[in-house]
Amino acid sequence: MFDKSFEYYDRIYREFKDYHAEAKKIDEIIKQKKPDAKSILDVACGTGEHAHILTEQYGYNVDGIDIEPAFVEIAQSKCTAGEFSVADMTDFDLGKEYDVVTCLFSAIGYVKTIENTTKAIGEFARHVRPGGIIIVEPWISKKDFEGVGNYHLKTVDAEDLKVARISYSEIIGNISRITFQYLIGADGKFAHEREVHELGLLTNEELAGCFEANGLEYDFDEIGLMDRGLFVAKQAG
Question: Which residues of 112-123 are buried (b: 16+ CB within 10 A; e: fewer)?
Fold first, then answer.
């Protein structure tokens, strides 16, 4: 998925994504829902930016998994005390449980279908301790998906790196497809890369059903971390 852009991922997203504010809100949720929590598993951890802040600023012990090997390597370099490994969120077994399991930045959308989402949430539930919580940031639903047929531009304009990323969005059935084109200038060279990302367009009601199918009860924050909402779940009863 991010096999072409992993090297520049942090530089691109730090231009518009406030990881510190998001980590602060995650900490506030944990303090409210599971105040004695010490350990976090960050599913689809990406480059480990949330994990790094939650470790360094808030004192959690954070492990992570991601399907992209390059991301895992970067995350491990940032969070040397944690354990980061390559794994598919729909089928993994780390042999341990955590106080909190997170899946942020709409990464749950990459599993695409209700069946796979139910499997993924089941894996989250299997890795959370009794009394622990699961925090999932959903992708955008079909009716709320904006920018279809539109082009969007993100840039990095630093002395050592220039990146222009143009994205084009479309809907195919219940899948949102986003094509990224990158023009990169660095180290005296130019490069052009292309990635295609596909995420399932589940409604919040469908996603809620995936929690319920795994015996979980949940609260839903309509705003969440970046106006996409946020599910906070635990075992029912």
Answer: bebebbbbbbbb
In this predicted model, what pLDDT tens digit does every residue of 112-139 receive, in sequence order? Answer: 999 999 999 999 999 999 999 999 999 9
Q: Which pLDDT score is estimated for 1?
A: 77
Q: Regarding the domain delimited by 6-141+202-235, which CATH topology (the fold level of the hierarchy) does it fall under? A: Rossmann fold (3.40.50)
Contacts 24+ apart (CB under 8 A), 80-84: 81/55, 82/51, 82/55, 84/45, 84/48, 84/51
- Provide the pairing of β-strand 98-103 with 175-186: unpaired
Homologous superfamily of 142-200 in CATH? CAC2371-like domains (2.20.130.10)
With a CB cutoff of 8 Å and minimum separation 6, the contacts of 38 are 60, 61, 99
Delimit the CATH 2.20.130.10 region(s) of the chain. Answer: 142-200
